[in-house]
Structures are given as structure tokens and as C-alpha cells.
Design brief:
Oligomer: homodimer
Radius of gyration of chain A: 19 Å
Largest sheet of chain A: 2 strands, antiparallel
Number of strands of chain A: 2
Strand content of chain A: 5-15%
Chain lengths: ~140, ~140
Amino acid sequence: MSASTKLSTAVKALCYISNCYPEPKNSTDIANSIGVNASKLRKILSMLVKNDIVESSYGVKGGFLLKKDSSKLHLQEIYCAIEDRKAFYLDVRKKDVKKNSMPAKLNSYFLELFSDIQVDIEEKMKIITIKSILEKINNKK
Amino acid sequence: MSASTKLSTAVKALCYISNCYPEPKNSTDIANSIGVNASKLRKILSMLVKNDIVESSYGVKGGFLLKKDSSKLHLQEIYCAIEDRKAFYLDVRKKDVKKNSMPAKLNSYFLELFSDIQVDIEEKMKIITIKSILEKINNKK
DNA sequence: TAAATAGTTACACTTACTGTAACAATTATT
DNA sequence: AATAATTGTTACAGTAAGTGTAACTATTTA
């Protein structure tokens, strides 16, 4: 699953959970509703649990619930919860180039640049909340 | 090769070519200098040729030359020349969800969002030229 | 204690990536 | 015209990564 597909899946699940509030929804129902495999979804949801975005309960009538108000839950924290690798990732483990050589300096340069871009993207994501997404898609025909 | 690694390789090659101006450099020399496989490098360079960023000449003393002044050559056009897939890519080929359902609407939403982010990234890349990169890395110890 | 659920692990399958080599096409030089 | 050097392209085996699914374990409620 690519970074973006994972984020999209997580948000779909969160929107579904948010719409069902305050009743907890189990992974099977959520998975069926948004069209993904339940086991995979649980993997994603478990990461959201670890990052205090949703809470889970076991047993009958158990399932998942939002842990924060949807107006306070933004994309960036969801993204960080499910992503290990960053969107722009430079492979610099390669066979070592000579220190202070042009290629070595360019590696550093790009690491810095991609990191800057990553920050920009995350800033953009910080101003998008689950609530704002729900409002936006509900106002569309 | 990831998008970012390919971009980084292309820029390393372009910097090397730029430094050797006006003598054309062949793929073997460039590859050795920046530490990549010559055949792979030729694949990248051939895309730059098709996009009028470098020109190539066959035969003895042949090789690659910048086709534009390094002050007029920016990252965005290099990126576009070598990338088919975009950095943020949402997989929406999946088993079709019902039209106008929440998941379907969210797919559209994310396609738009990722496209916006892509535009932002490319805008940022447009103000970075090969010349500015060369100056920056040469001023560093 | 039983049943339902989250959380995790495992695995076969497929797909994509990697590195390298080999081949085909092109052109300057002799 | 022949040759040699080079770009441009294809092929391929080997490896790594992603996918989908199932099965298992852990936890909790009733």
C-alpha cells in the first residue's frame, strides 16, 4: 500500500467511525463499508490506536471510536501515525561516494531539500480536519 | 529507483556535464564519476534528451552536453522529464465503490488534494536552477 | 465460560525493482 | 566503405517489496 493509499484508507475509516458516533464499529463492518480487507484495516487502525487517534474495545459490541473531536483531528497527525517512510525519500545508503565530492554534497543537498518539502506538505495537512473533509464531501452532489 | 533518487541522479549527471562544458562527456565517465551504472544512467539521460535538456552525439568524442544555460534549467523540468508517476499517487483502480458513496467521494477528494500538493512541490522546484545548486554546494566547505 | 472482537503473525502469490549485460542504431573518423 | 566509439534499447535473472488472505493469539464483555 502506498503512503497516499494508506492515508486515504485511514481517512475513509475515520469518516465512517465519525458518522456512526457514539456507537463503536468493528473492523469487519468498516472494511465492508469502505471496500478493503478487514485484516489490513485492523493493521492501520491499530496504529491509530497507538497514536491516540481512535480507541478500541474488545468483545461483543466492541469496535473502534474516535478519541478526539473530528474538528481537532487533522490529516498531518493521521499521516504521521501510519507512515514510517516519508513521501520523498532519498536513497543514500548506496556505495559510498568520496567525502566532499560533488555527488556527496548533492546527496546532502537533496536530503535537506526533500526534508523541506516534507515539512511544507505536513503544514498543508495540518489545516485539514476530518470535520472539514466531511463537510466538504457532504456539500457535493 | 525511487522518484527522488532518480531526480538526484539526474542532477548529479547534469552538474558533472555542466562542469565539463564545452566538452561532451560519455555515459561511462559520468557514471563512474557519480557512482551509478552506465546503462541505467543512459536511460535517464535519454529522457533528458527527449525533453531537450541535454543533447547527445554518437561516435568517437561523442557524449552529452547541456542544451540550456544552467541558470535557465530548473528542477521542475528535470523532474517532469524523468517522472511518469507523480510523488503522491492515489490508487483508485481498486474494486469499484458505489458511485456517490462516501468512499467514492473521498477518492475524488484525495485525488484533488494530492494534485494540489504536487503543484506546490513543482512550484518550489521551479525556482531552483542547476546553477544555483552548483553555487550552493561549492560555497560549502 | 463462551463468544466476539482487536491485534498480530505467517505465507503464498504476485508485482515491482535492481543490476548487469547484451544487442541495435547512429555517427564521426580514417 | 569500413571501423570503432558511442548512444539508445531490450532482456533477463535475481532480489526485494507489496498484496490478499487466512489463521492464530490476546483481551474483554456478557
